[in-house]
Amino acid sequence: NSYFFETNANNTATITNLLKCFLLCWLYLCKDIRCKCICPPYRDVEGQIYKQNVSLKDCNCLHVVEPMPVDGKDVEAYCLRCECKYEERSSGTIKVTIIMYLSILGLLLLYMVYLTLLEPMLKRRLFGHSQLIQSDDDIGDQQPFANAHNVLSRSHSRPNMLNKVEHAQQRWRRQVQEQRKSVFDRHVVLS
């Protein structure tokens, strides 16, 4: 029994050490921490920005500025002019945020393609080509998709959820058309 517990304790210690090693490697590879020193011009040396992956306690000119551009007694005077800041960031959070942003943007682009390309073709097939083509005078008087719910309710090949979405879309279009008529024809603005 004691051999079993010693083996488990050794395995646990080994796993813990491996996790610590992995964590340190991850922090080093992701470069989530750094010290940034901004050094202004000094005598004949141009101003520069130095960056180094060091801990907070080592975030100073002596540990970050490599190679040191001045020699001997000028090192202290040069380092006093430098401003060093310790910076921490989470590159994992940044990556996740960018992926989410690009995914949402991609979905919106796909929806735009659907609305501009596929929806008109589906409307023509479903409602007929003659209802979609109207003159500008008829747009205010007639509602081109007024019978959309009747056509959709007769269609048994489409799922029920799609019928509900289509019905809500048609209701929204009728409301927008009525608002346009109120604003442009009757000159009535909602308050």
From TrEMBL:
<dbReference type="InterPro" id="IPR008853">
    <property type="entry name" value="TMEM9/TMEM9B"/>
</dbReference>
<feature type="transmembrane region" description="Helical">
    <location>
        <begin position="98"/>
        <end position="117"/>
    </location>
</feature>
<dbReference type="GO" id="GO:0043123">
    <property type="term" value="P:positive regulation of canonical NF-kappaB signal transduction"/>
</dbReference>
<dbReference type="GO" id="GO:0005765">
    <property type="term" value="C:lysosomal membrane"/>
</dbReference>
<keyword id="KW-0812">Transmembrane</keyword>
<dbReference type="Pfam" id="PF05434">
    <property type="entry name" value="Tmemb_9"/>
</dbReference>
<keyword id="KW-1133">Transmembrane helix</keyword>
<protein>
    <submittedName>
        <fullName>TMEM9 domain family, member B</fullName>
    </submittedName>
</protein>
<comment type="similarity">
    <text>Belongs to the TMEM9 family.</text>
</comment>
<keyword id="KW-0472">Membrane</keyword>
